[in-house]
Write a structure and sequence with these properties.
With about 500 residues, this protein is of the alpha/beta class. It has 18 helices and 16 strands.
Length: about 500
């Protein structure tokens, strides 16, 4: 008997819809690759997948791999149908046309910034005569990116990673609204059986001692991300230094900032040089690199468990997967109020409900709502500047101050270890709940629910469409976007 029949929602292989997934190679450990893999793993009993797997200078480009047997072993069925076609970069029209003919997918889904997919959108009408286009979408910050409208209009379904992204899509499409079922919120999810609290584990204790040393630590903060400019790693290190300077030396010596990243990266900076400047030596015991390179989920879970909190100081962060992993491991989070990080803090509105965003209040960066989950220490940005480039003319870069970073660290430090643990466990309980749904299983269920609706309602595009252009149906940007301002700022400027 097919083991798949035991899995809820199972459909036999020959009856499933097939989805062509344009994303990072699902076998890789990039953020996009990991989340793409989680989507496939948790929907393989319902859909067949072909992954055009991107990587820079992919060493296996030009080959194809059937990984169904591995997927079967991991999810407990025996008839998955999963193929990976490695590709150098994010694809091109020739390979897509070839796959549309060979694989005959029922849908094309892509993930990440639409700027990588200009070639895809230039052939959207050709694709949509055959099958729908799905965009698992995110946008890091405001103002509403009106230049993305041409992309969003070309999608049949937009699934927003964050509440802010979902609101952004709806507002960018305000003059071309899609039906409610076509724009939905599906946050990232991870496997709570891979990231979890560890206790009474000899192997973990030995690993912890190897990484942190034999001396007992009072306070450990973990940072897991790429060493790139927008992550503001140097700001984090300086905040750590300012925080430590407020403690007696004997107490400061029992605090460690643990960095899991490349110490030097041309897209970021020379972090040992930064550490040496602020601490006088690049080998200070107060700041350590894991020096582990790529690690498996077990040892990554160990890193989270040996910390008291995970901290970000990013100025443009769409989601912040390190925070989700930290929460699921039962650890507190410290982060700027921005992007999808807001979702993970669970800010409450006047009625005690988890906040949503609207045209009038598209972000909580203004601090309208202060109350959040006990597992989070939010940092509200102190500065907001407008960055841009010709393809993306404007985007806010909202930064927290080094001083506020130090204050947030002190707040966490002053808690008893038992309180930090209790708050972290409350974060895990919420993160894996149905309300948050930050688990791979719930993410898969939400994908299935929404994609099934798409397959029921989608209608192919006609080969040609005649559009009468006049003033009435030509969109304009005459209405400026409202800028969220903090109540404190309004009070101060009006008192001058």
């Amino acid at each position: 008997k097919n083991k798949g029949y035991m899995k809820e929602g199972y459909i036999p292989r020959d009856q499933r819809k097939k989805i062509l997934f344009l994303s990072d190679d699902i076998r890789l450990h990039s953020g996009v690759g990991c989340q793409s893999r989680n989507i496939v793993l948790n929907t393989a009993h319902r859909y067949n997948w072909v992954n055009l797997g991107a990587a820079i200078k992919h060493p296996e480009a030009g080959q194809a791999f059937d990984i169904s047997a591995d997927i079967n072993n991991r999810i407990g069925i025996n008839d998955s149908n999963i193929k990976v076609i490695p590709f150098d970069g994010y694809g091109n029209p020739e390979i897509l046309r070839q796959l549309l003919v060979q694989e005959k997918p029922d849908a094309v889904m892509h993930f990440t910034d639409p700027r990588y997919w200009e070639w895809l959108y230039r052939m959207e009408n050709e694709i949509r005569q055959q099958c729908p286009i799905i965009f698992y979408t995110i946008w890091d910050d405001l103002p509403y990116p009106m230049w993305n409208r041409k992309y969003y209009r070309s999608d049949d379904m937009l699934l927003g990673i964050s509440k802010q992204s979902t609101n952004i899509v709806k507002n960018v499409l305000k003059e071309y609204p899609k039906e409610d079922w076509a724009v939905k919120y599906i946050p990232h999810g991870i496997d709570e059986k891979q990231f979890f609290p560890v206790a009474n584990d000899f192997e973990f204790e030995a690993f912890k001692e190897k990484v942190l040393g034999e001396d007992e630590k009072d306070f450990v903060v973990f940072w897991n991300s790429r060493n790139i400019r927008r992550k503001n790693t140097s700001d984090l290190i300086l905040s750590w230094k300012v925080f430590l300077d407020q403690l007696p030396k004997e107490k400061a010596d029992k605090c460690t900032l643990l960095l899991h990243t490349d110490p030097i990266d041309p897209n970021g900076t020379d972090l040992p040089a930064v550490i040496e400047t602020f601490f006088g030596t690049s080998t200070t015991p107060n700041v350590k690199f894991t020096n582990q390179g790529k690690v498996d989920d077990k040892h990554m879970n160990y890193f989270y468990n040996m910390s008291d909190a995970h901290m970000f100081m990013t100025d443009n962060e769409g989601w912040g997967l390190g925070l989700t992993e930290s929460l699921t491991a039962g650890r507190m989070i410290i982060a700027p109020v921005q992007g999808g990080m807001q979702d993970q803090m669970r800010f409450e509105d006047e009625n005690g409900d988890w906040i949503d965003f609207s045209t009038e209040h598209p972000s909580n960066v203004d601090g309208k709502y202060k109350k959040c989950g006990k597992w989070a220490i939010p940092m509200f940005p102190k500065t907001r500047s407008v960055k841009g480039s010709p393809p993306t003319p404007y985007i806010f870069a909202s930064q927290v101050s080094v001083e506020d970073g130090a204050i947030a660290l002190m707040k966490a430090y002053k808690m008893d270890p038992e309180e930090r643990q209790e708050r972290g466990l409350a974060g895990r309980k919420w993160a894996i709940s149905k309300e948050a749904g930050f688990t791979a299983k719930i993410m898969g269920e939400r994908f299935i629910e929404n994609l099934d609706i798409l397959f029921q309602k989608w209608k192919p595009r006609k080969r040609f469409e005649l559009i009468k252009i006049n003033k009435e149906n030509t969109p304009s940007n005459e209405q400026p976007m409202p800028i969220s301002l903090s109540p404190e700022f309004i009070k101060e400027i009006q008192s001058i």
